[in-house]
Design a protein that fits this description.
Helix content: 40-55%
Number of strands: 11
CATH architecture of the largest domain: Alpha-Beta Barrel
Order of helices and strands: HEHHEHHEHHEEHEHEHHEHEEHE
Structural class: alpha/beta
Number of domains: 2
Shape: globular
Largest sheet: 9 strands, parallel
Radius of gyration: 27 Å
CATH superfamily of the largest domain: Glycosidases
Strand content: 5-15%
Amino acid sequence: MKRFLLLISYFFIFITLFCSCNNISSIIKNQEKKLNNSAITNYEETSKTDSKKINYDNIKGVWISYLEYGWLMTEKSEEEFKNNIVSVFDNLVSKKINTVIVQVRSHSDSYYNSQYYPWSKYVTGTVSKKPSYDPLKIMVQEAHKRNLSIHAWINPYRVMTDELMEQVPDNYSIKKWYKNTEYMVKHENYWYLNPSNNEVQDLIVSGVNELCSNYDIDGIQIDDYFYVPSPQQFNCNEITAQNSTTELVQKIYNTVKKIDKNILFGISPAGNYTDKPKSDTTQYTQLELWCTQTGYIDYVAPQIYWSCDDKIAPFETILQKWENLCKNNKVDLVVGLAGYKFSQTNELNTQIDIVNNNNNTNGYIIFRYDNIK
């Protein structure tokens, strides 16, 4: 009888220990689940805040344009494109370059997965034909592996030729607006969007929003195409044209900063400068405003594409004018250099030295990769 009672006691002790272990296991699992959920929540919260960006106080940059994409990207497989862009980035790193400005929209098309613009012919060889990979995603990944800052460069207003526009699907805004002079006009071979049209501005800003939201880019840049051919062709006067240009610039700036204040927004205007930036009157910009007041741009990269001994616009004289505009302001001055003009001389190296030794500049960007590779 005593043996039986002893066995019963052992049995109850075993059951108690078993349940206790299960409870402990359950507690551990619940704690792990809470920790995991906490980690997920923290990650999601972090992803919605401002991220760290790779941007340099002293930019040593190069523009990579749709012209390079002809041999880099067009009709290339994912492996071929990746090998090509890796070779380009490795070459730039070897030349002490720290920033790449890659074109992502040149003719109201896209070199990335966009819901607003059709795929460029420079990707697959055919307008709107989707590739098997996302070129911009690869460029961002490979740039950041090498600590290269990468800025997405867009041409806001230029559209395609008639031949290419015929190939654009009807669901895209640019096709719906095709040949409608309220939205676009033709100049020489290309169509150009109307900068004063609110729907046009909304399209451009939406494109910027998706770039900053979907890709880990470090900056957005627009180039020197503004009112082409002239405000009169869009049935507006010069004041309206300037106001419309500034309105778009401010919208882009606010869109970028709302997504991530650490993403830079810059403009690369024509470098012509007499008593003021010439594009303020020829392309209806307001650089004197944008470069002296906050809330428009983070940096300006004027294309100072003349030699040091140019008789009309010597490099250092024009540079000094831009320095005076940006001095004591929060807008950085990054000098655009003409690699394409001076690839066979020592002029480019001379200008780089001038910029590097200048305390009033924040670096340079060379146009373009094919001219320095």
